Model the fold of this input.
Amino acid sequence: MIQAQSLTKHYGSKTAVDSVDFTVQPGKVTGFLGPNGAGKSTTMRMIVGLDRPSAGSVIVNGKPYHEHKAPLREVGVLLDAKAVHTGRSAYNHLRAMAATHNIPTSRVHEVINLTGLEPVARKRVGGFSLGMGQRLGIAAALLGDPATLILDEPVNGLDPEGVQWVRKLTKQLAAEGRTVLLSSHLMSEMALTADHIIVLGRGRVIADASVSDIIASAAQNTVRVRTPHTAALAALLAQADVTITNVEQDVLEISGLTVNEIGDRAAAAQISLHELSAVSASLEDAYMKLTQNEVEYRTGDSSSHTETEAAR
Amino acid sequence: MSTVTPTQPSTSRASFVPTGSGLSFTGLLRSETIKLWSLRSTYWTYSLVIVAALGFGVLMSFALSATAGLDPATGGPMPMESAQIFVIASTSGLALGQLIVAVLGVLSISGEYSSGMIKSTLTAVPNRLPALWAKVIVLFVFTFLIGLVSVVGAFLAAVPRLGVENITASLFDVDVLLPLLGNVLFLALIAVFAVGIGTIVRSSAGGIATVLGILLLLPTVVALFSMLVEWVNDIVPFLFTVAGSEMVYPNTMESWQAFLVVIAWVAVSLGTAALLLKRRDA
Done:
């Protein structure tokens, strides 16, 4: 369990994390989302004591991280793949890390097998691909068989098989009653992996809810209708809580009404429909809507930046 | 890993309780030993220290035996003790070794900063200082041992040529052994001093420049100023390298006083390093 209270970090005059409060529960995979510079990595660094909070506090499994007698058994952390000396082999890196906590060499071999590093374990890390570096980072995080895992962009650089492996692994670790906090820019991946989402924007928590609640609250389900009589249909359906967007010449996107309601009313008015389908909102849509304001506020130019976000 | 995986993880499920051994200082010493000996640069640098000592041992045995019979002033027998000749032959190469272990000391920590390894180190040891002390102890012990191998090797390498001139001495003669140990001690303390500088500067280039500046440049600069300003002469014995040499060859102060000066340099370097390591964001 990770509990942050009024957690704040200033770098000079810049506020990276602005008095955030959140709790990451055990037994669930919690996704940590937010645009670049939203404060995700800084928050993760403060959890494990690499950065000192300017104000507020964060505790892991009941205590500040540095007060634990066996830190690597409490928290396994992957901050970025480049937390390894490039001149050392993967095996020796893990052995050196394990030695600090008297973790047996058998466990080193276990995490090497688990992460599929055997073929390169004796090679120097400097020659590793991004994916191999990422696997080594995950191996190091798992070394102490920790109660809490903090993984910053764990699937970054992994092949599809590796992405799927991380998804299964994090779900399994959470199912064992561990706390799992992971960040990712791959929204579709996050939707498949996470049970709960915390969204940061400009150093503040802008959403903290289950994946389904986030989608429901931030993005409305819409209905897509193709008809040659768009104007007539729009006039027919127009009412206070319904929004109608003419997305193509003969296509409307309608929110506030169900597929059934639209179909029945169109039939009653004898308006022919060529397509009628529900478009369910994705986590990505919800995320975009949530963070759009944050990005807008910061840059003062919404259109170009929402496009950049969408392009990612 | 043995628990059954339910399809829907529930929040009511008991939290995972970590088990197993914790952080220990002996573990940290082992970790730092693995770190030191799992880098190729360690083998290179320590080999160079030994090779330089042996090479200079042989060279100096020839040079000293050529002049040993004569006193340059009187043309008569030279007043130098044979013990002193052996000490010079055994330790000449350490002057180079000092620069090499200084670089090694800086790299042992600056390499962690430049590669990002420091993040792994400090998440394993969130109180930070034990990691620094373990690194310092491991580097001190191994540098001392390598220094010992170097001077004993150089002593043995000098024996054949000096023996021809009937210059002999026992390694266990106090006049031989103590100066050798003093030189080796200073060598190991230079490595430790350099760890402190590397921690303060957090960059390989900056750290090496600083340490070599203190070892090589500072004595020259102070000597230059002492020609202009007379009182500057009084600080010369307090220079790191001068005090290190006076530990073995007391001149302006006693050996133990020189030793305290050396320790003060090391203490300031490590003290500042500890303070900054504890305080700064990694």
